[in-house]
Amino acid sequence: MMELLILFLEFFKIGLFSVGGGLATLPFLYDLANQYDWLRLEQIPNMVAVSESTPGPLGVNMATYAGFQCAGIWGGIVATVGLVAPSVIIVILVYRFLEKFRSSAVVERAFYGLRPVVVGLIGAAGFGVMLMALFDMEVVKTSGLQQLANWFRWKECLLFVLIFFASKKWKNIHPIVFVVIGAVAGIVFHLG
Length: 192
Hints:
The chain is an all-alpha fold. The protein is 79% helix and 0% strand. It has ten helices and no strands. Helix 1 (2-17) packs across helix 4. The longest helix has 39 residues, at 58-96. It is globular and about 60 Å long.
């Protein structure tokens, strides 16, 4: 029962402060992985991959995934409810005062000021996922520049480059095709 309460409160905080969508939740998930043993840093790139390739909002999918990892089905439900609860509460409150907010220059400037913050959070999250996907972070932390070649996950780097250039060359191919190719390559070549 205590696990479920912790899940709810942690994901409530994430839902309250991760302005900008699902990728903005990543810094908070990294923090959770450092605090609790039910979520490991190595799981986050897989969580993002699964969440990106399944229907629904990314943040909600990641909350469900993390909650399920912690406490099964009830954990998935509680984490998801915790994540969306702040948005529901805020929408209800904003709706009540919509006319005041609509004409407020202060609120308009505040939302305008949030844009670079959101871009920064998403950029940092994307950079973190890239580092974990393409580099063996344990080797990076424990070795010096002498072992630079061992830092890279070479198969993953090659797949990244191939998919990147293929997506640029064949822009008319739907992105889901590249996601499926990446998933199949991950299974076949034991990536991650």
